[in-house]
């Protein structure tokens, strides 16, 4: 027996010591060449082979390496692919893992709290609307009565101290009423809601710029609560009402305004989406055109291409503007904002890099025309060549048959002619199919097999079969169907002919 | 049964659920690692996630035009921070996902903080573990036990991690554990408790064969993490250290700036995916092939013979770096590996290690170890490992000369602290603490196998060792795993051969075991095995684990 190392390295036949490439080859060789040897020995050796086979196969994963680095390199390529990372095909597709939502609970708890705010805020807004109505009196005395009619003012005597700061009222600390909730507060705790801001709160369409709430310092009378020193109209409210109103304002503000960066970003996204829509239409066009097919016109492709180029330009411009956005402002945007803008630019340029490739290799119109022309002539040439070949074969066949049959010329004369006509008709039919095949796929003339068959009819059948095979490979199913129809016709014709031939002879 | 995919699907779902527009991903320290293992930044950028923020980073800017996806562990601190955030929201809308079960009380705290109604989603998505490979996960805990019992905080984190793996894979398993390990039993019971408590969550479509969760203890096989490795992934981890797919190359002599830290992710690096389980020799030739291919393209006639030539070659072609940064990265990594192997006699050491672990004659091995201990080029840590392996292997051998070897270590200037590790490893993984036949010298079948192996000769001396786990899993798959050593928790038992197996090693697993599981998955159709551990160890982190486990006094920094 050879040393163990040799067993691993070669597949030696124990009888004649020839080296075989694989276990199976060796086994075949042994069974073929040495079966005449003693049966028992054979069985024993066969068992050994199986064991050795298992061992060799099983041990492949722990292939010796370092010392044999170079010798195992070739082999490693062979099963390297199989050893590669993880193949998801091993395991069934995976659904999303378990999850549990707490949103309902969350909303219920939040709702209980927030509803309270919403009700209160709505009350305030209704009152505010009344106070702002154009019919509201401006005369201070009547104004006060009007204000008191909108919300019940808490009587002074019920409140000994400010409701927010708890400072007791007296000569120095006077009582004031919040115009929105009727609560009593001291002057220090008073907030002043400017009327234009109030307008905005009631009517979101109202244009407003400036400060919503003022802090007035120089007055402690409530008589002139409508006019501040600066001349801006305002009204006295308490802190709580202010907070509620501001909360509402923030939320509507969030809903209705978009910072310029977001507007830019949305434009960018629109362009990207548009490009993503156009690309799948454009790419097959280029491919088809550059193969010389005529399914799409050159103009169509050019229009789409221009559209894409424009979109890419827009994406490039927009993302550049985003990256530059606010950089020259004073103060400059915060670092995170800059980082964000950069990230958007990277996103956009990644998109362009990935998708721009298909754009560059668009053939020129002339090239397209040339290719289409070339393709046409090519197809025609091939069809002609096939017909020629078929006819020549027929001719040869007839000559041969005439030679062989020799005598009954008159009888055989009509039969090949019929043959000839049938094949002509077939040739015509195939030309049709060739025309439709002409877009993208075309069977290659394969006559090697066909020429060996003598009968021209059989020859035709064989050729058609070859086409069907090719068509199947090229996955042109409609053409397969058509060719199969042709084949059936041919076969019928053949049967009919051979019957008539038999009858005639 | 693909943990990477499981986490990735969660993250994708979060991003989808947030709708269009610019997004920020708000995470904590751990979820940052969890997400970074499954998604490359460029990939997540394509989904309009432009910013990544840590919830605990102070002074984040207010950016109302971003929508926020918050993916957080449900810890007290995170709930507190998030409640603060919601009171004064920095971003437009909030979509909140917790990586594990969150209490109703915590939901209430958050709901009460959301006066501005910015929260649109509150969900539990159970991606509460680090997915390393499709079949491998880790919890990044080094030193899970102290005084040979669980540290309570680590136990609860492990239970959370393990249950989240089950939930993300939609498996409600039968549990088996290693009988010899108290920690394994404790963990098994804790997992069972969670499954019972959250029974509604664990109601999945019943499969024909119930999945199996097998809980093992590292102490049963302390040998595997001590060995030098020769497959790419394991070798990189052993010699350079992989931390959340990142490799620090800053200490490599003459390294360029952009290669000081590289990322090796099988999900995003094709060469790595194809070569991570290849052994060192093959990788060298694969890299050479790639380089030659490029050389052909660049029509250069320079011959690339050695790894040093390759490095020179790469440096001479700056455009090559652009074209295939991945190859430049791998050439650097493999170059460094081969430098280390050469500089520290690792081949020789590894051969001896393998012989200690697998077979070998005592006196002959003792000679070899002694001669290695006297070599100048061998690193102290490698000497220590050799002696530790010897201690484990010949613990009860009549001619045991452990004291002589420890003395030799002392003479070579190995510090007391490290020499103490020899005793520590015996306390941790010695004969008394083992429940199974690690060296195969009790079971007659194993002995015969070993003898036969010795007769046949070894194909590759550097990879003879097969981890204990491989044998255990092999028996499990065949339905032959002994009930006495690996009992079921509870009364129900599996009648058929298992199909879906999740195996978890307390005290950490290794990439050698990951490779073994990978091969089992490949070679046994119909069986799917996922391996997990409190950590993925190399010898360095394993020594930390051991010293923490035995002494219980050493404080080991871990990544929580």
Automatic annotation (TrEMBL), chain A:
<dbReference type="InterPro" id="IPR011011">
    <property type="entry name" value="Znf_FYVE_PHD"/>
</dbReference>
<keyword id="KW-0479">Metal-binding</keyword>
<keyword id="KW-0863">Zinc-finger</keyword>
<feature type="coiled-coil region">
    <location>
        <begin position="473"/>
        <end position="500"/>
    </location>
</feature>
<dbReference type="InterPro" id="IPR017455">
    <property type="entry name" value="Znf_FYVE-rel"/>
</dbReference>
<feature type="domain" description="C2H2-type">
    <location>
        <begin position="11"/>
        <end position="39"/>
    </location>
</feature>
<feature type="compositionally biased region" description="Basic and acidic residues">
    <location>
        <begin position="394"/>
        <end position="405"/>
    </location>
</feature>
<dbReference type="InterPro" id="IPR000306">
    <property type="entry name" value="Znf_FYVE"/>
</dbReference>
<dbReference type="GO" id="GO:0008270">
    <property type="term" value="F:zinc ion binding"/>
</dbReference>
<dbReference type="Pfam" id="PF01363">
    <property type="entry name" value="FYVE"/>
</dbReference>
<feature type="region of interest" description="Disordered">
    <location>
        <begin position="394"/>
        <end position="452"/>
    </location>
</feature>
<dbReference type="InterPro" id="IPR052727">
    <property type="entry name" value="Rab4/Rab5_effector"/>
</dbReference>
<protein>
    <recommendedName>
        <fullName>Rabenosyn-5</fullName>
    </recommendedName>
</protein>
<keyword id="KW-0862">Zinc</keyword>
<keyword id="KW-0175">Coiled coil</keyword>
<dbReference type="Pfam" id="PF11464">
    <property type="entry name" value="Rbsn"/>
</dbReference>
<dbReference type="InterPro" id="IPR021565">
    <property type="entry name" value="Rbsn_Rab-bd"/>
</dbReference>
<dbReference type="InterPro" id="IPR013083">
    <property type="entry name" value="Znf_RING/FYVE/PHD"/>
</dbReference>
<feature type="domain" description="FYVE-type">
    <location>
        <begin position="156"/>
        <end position="246"/>
    </location>
</feature>
<dbReference type="InterPro" id="IPR036531">
    <property type="entry name" value="Rbsn_Rab-bd_sf"/>
</dbReference>
<dbReference type="InterPro" id="IPR013087">
    <property type="entry name" value="Znf_C2H2_type"/>
</dbReference>
TrEMBL record, chain B:
<dbReference type="Pfam" id="PF00995">
    <property type="entry name" value="Sec1"/>
</dbReference>
<keyword id="KW-0813">Transport</keyword>
<comment type="similarity">
    <text>Belongs to the STXBP/unc-18/SEC1 family.</text>
</comment>
<keyword id="KW-0472">Membrane</keyword>
<protein>
    <recommendedName>
        <fullName>Vacuolar protein sorting-associated protein 45</fullName>
    </recommendedName>
</protein>
<dbReference type="InterPro" id="IPR001619">
    <property type="entry name" value="Sec1-like"/>
</dbReference>
<keyword id="KW-0653">Protein transport</keyword>
<dbReference type="GO" id="GO:0015031">
    <property type="term" value="P:protein transport"/>
</dbReference>
<dbReference type="InterPro" id="IPR043127">
    <property type="entry name" value="Sec-1-like_dom3a"/>
</dbReference>
<dbReference type="GO" id="GO:0031410">
    <property type="term" value="C:cytoplasmic vesicle"/>
</dbReference>
<dbReference type="InterPro" id="IPR027482">
    <property type="entry name" value="Sec1-like_dom2"/>
</dbReference>
<dbReference type="GO" id="GO:0012505">
    <property type="term" value="C:endomembrane system"/>
</dbReference>
<dbReference type="InterPro" id="IPR043154">
    <property type="entry name" value="Sec-1-like_dom1"/>
</dbReference>
<dbReference type="InterPro" id="IPR036045">
    <property type="entry name" value="Sec1-like_sf"/>
</dbReference>
């Amino acid at each position: 027996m050879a040393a163990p190392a040799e067993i691993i390295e070669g597949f030696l036949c124990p009888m004649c010591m020839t080296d075989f490439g694989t276990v199976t080859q060796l086994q075949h060789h042994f069974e073929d060449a040495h079966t005449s040897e003693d049966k028992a020995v054979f069985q024993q050796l066969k068992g050994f082979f199986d064991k050795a086979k298992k061992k060799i196969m099983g041990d492949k994963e722990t292939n010796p390496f370092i010392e044999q680095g170079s010798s195992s390199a070739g082999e490693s390529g062979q099963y390297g692919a199989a050893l590669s990372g993880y193949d998801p095909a091993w395991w069934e597709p995976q659904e999303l893992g378990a999850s549990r939502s707490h949103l309902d609970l969350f909303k219920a708890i939040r709702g209980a709290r927030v509803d309270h705010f919403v009700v209160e805020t709505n009350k305030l807004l209704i009152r505010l609307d009344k106070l702002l109505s154009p019919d509201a009196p401006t005369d201070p005395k009547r104004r006060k009565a009007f204000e008191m009619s909108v919300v019940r003012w808490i009587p002074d005597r019920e409140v000994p101290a400010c409701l927010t700061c708890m400072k007791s009222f007296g000569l120095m600390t006077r009582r004031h009423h919040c115009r929105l909730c009727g609560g009593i507060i001291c002057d220090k705790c008073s907030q002043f809601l400017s009327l234009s801001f109030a307008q905005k709160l009631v009517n979101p369409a109202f244009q407003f710029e400036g400060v919503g709430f003022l802090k007035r310092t120089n007055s402690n009378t409530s008589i002139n609560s409508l006019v501040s020193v600066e001349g801006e109209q305002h009204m006295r409210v308490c802190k709580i009402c202010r907070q509620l109103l501001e909360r509402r304002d923030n939320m509507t503000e969030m809903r209705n305004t978009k910072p310029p960066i977001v507007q830019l970003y949305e434009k960018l996204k629109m362009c990207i989406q548009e490009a993503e829509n156009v690309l799948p239409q454009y790419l097959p066009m280029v491919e088809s055109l550059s193969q010389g097919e005529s399914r799409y016109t050159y103009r169509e492709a050019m229009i789409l291409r221009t559209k894409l180029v424009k979109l890419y330009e827009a994406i490039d411009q927009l993302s550049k503007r985003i990256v530059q956005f606010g950089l020259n402002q004073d103060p400059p945007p915060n670092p995170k904002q800059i980082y964000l803008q950069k990230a958007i630019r990277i996103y956009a340029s990644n998109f362009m890099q990935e998708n721009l490739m298909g754009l560059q290799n668009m053939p020129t119109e002339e090239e397209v025309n040339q290719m289409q022309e070339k393709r046409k002539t090519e197809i025609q040439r091939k069809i002609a060549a096939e017909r020629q070949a078929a006819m020549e074969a027929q001719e040869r066949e007839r000559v041969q048959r005439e030679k062989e049959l020799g005598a009954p010329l008159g009888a055989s004369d009509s039969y090949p002619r019929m043959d000839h006509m049938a094949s002509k008709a077939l040739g015509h039919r195939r030309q049709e199919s060739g025309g439709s095949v002409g877009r993208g796929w075309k069977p290659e003339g394969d006559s090697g097999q066909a020429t060996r068959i003598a009968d021209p009819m059989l020859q035709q059948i064989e050729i058609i079969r070859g086409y069907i095979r090719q068509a199947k490979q090229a996955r042109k199913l409609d053409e397969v169907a058509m060719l199969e129809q042709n084949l059936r016709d041919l076969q019928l014709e053949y049967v009919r002919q051979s019957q008539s031939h038999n009858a005639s002879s | 049964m693909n943990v990477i995919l499981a986490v990735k699907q969660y993250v994708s779902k979060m991003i989808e659920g947030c709708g269009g527009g610019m997004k920020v991903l708000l995470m904590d320290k751990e979820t940052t690692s969890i997400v970074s293992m499954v998604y490359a930044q460029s990939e997540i950028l394509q989904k309009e996630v432009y910013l990544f923020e840590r919830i605990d980073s102070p002074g984040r800017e207010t950016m109302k035009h971003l929508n926020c996806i918050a993916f957080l562990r449900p810890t007290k601190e995170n709930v507190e921070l998030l409640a603060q955030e919601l009171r004064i929201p920095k971003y437009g809308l909030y979509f909140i996902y917790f990586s594990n079960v969150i209490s109703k009380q915590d939901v209430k705290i958050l709901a009460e903080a959301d006066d501005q109604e910015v929260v649109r989603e509150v969900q539990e998505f159970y991606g509460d573990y680090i997915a390393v490979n499709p079949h491998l996960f880790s919890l990044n805990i080094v030193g899970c036990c102290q005084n040979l019992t669980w540290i309570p905080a680590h136990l609860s984190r492990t239970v959370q991690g393990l249950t989240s793996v089950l939930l993300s894979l939609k498996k409600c398993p039968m549990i088996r554990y290693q009988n010899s390990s108290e920690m394994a039993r404790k963990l098994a019971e804790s997992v069972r408790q969670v499954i019972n408590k959250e029974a509604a969550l664990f109601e999945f479509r019943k499969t024909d064969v119930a999945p199996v969760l097998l809980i093992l203890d590292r102490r049963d096989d302390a040998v595997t993490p001590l060995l030098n490795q020769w497959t790419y992934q394991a070798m990189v981890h052993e010699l350079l250290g992989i931390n959340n797919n990142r490799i620090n190359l800053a200490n490599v002599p003459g390294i360029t700036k952009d290669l000081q830290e590289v990322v090796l992710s099988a999900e995003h690096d094709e060469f790595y995916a194809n070569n991570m389980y290849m052994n060192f020799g093959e990788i060298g030739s694969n890299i050479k092939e790639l380089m030659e291919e490029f050389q052909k393209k660049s029509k250069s006639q320079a011959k690339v013979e050695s790894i040093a030539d390759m490095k020179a070659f790469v440096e001479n072609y700056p455009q090559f770096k652009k074209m295939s940064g991945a190859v430049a990265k791998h050439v650097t990594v493999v170059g460094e590996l081969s430098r280390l192997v050469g500089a520290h006699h690792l081949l020789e050491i590894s051969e001896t290690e393998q012989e200690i672990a697998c077979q070998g004659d005592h006196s002959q091995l003792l000679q070899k170890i002694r001669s290695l201990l006297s070599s100048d080029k061998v690193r102290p840590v490698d000497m220590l490992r050799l002696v530790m392996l010897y201690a484990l292997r010949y613990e009860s051998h009549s001619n045991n000369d452990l004291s002589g070897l420890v003395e030799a270590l002392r003479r070579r200037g190995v510090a007391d602290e490290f020499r103490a590790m020899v005793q520590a490893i015996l306390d941790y993984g010695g004969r008394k603490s083992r429940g199974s036949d690690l060296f195969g010298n009790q079971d007659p079948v194993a002995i015969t196998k070993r003898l036969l192996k010795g007769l046949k000769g070894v194909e590759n001396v550097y990879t003879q060792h097969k981890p204990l786990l491989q044998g255990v899993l092999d028996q499990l798959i065949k339905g032959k795993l002994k009930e006495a050593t690996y009992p079921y928790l509870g009364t129900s038992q599996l009648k058929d051969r298992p199909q879906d197996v999740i195996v978890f090693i307390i005290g950490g697993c290794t990439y050698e075991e990951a490779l073994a599981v990978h091969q089992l998955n490949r070679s046994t159709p119909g069986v799917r095995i996922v391996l997990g551990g409190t950590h993925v160890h190399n010898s360095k982190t394993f020594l930390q684990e051991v010293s923490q486990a035995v002494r219980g006094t050493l404080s080991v920094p871990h990544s929580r």
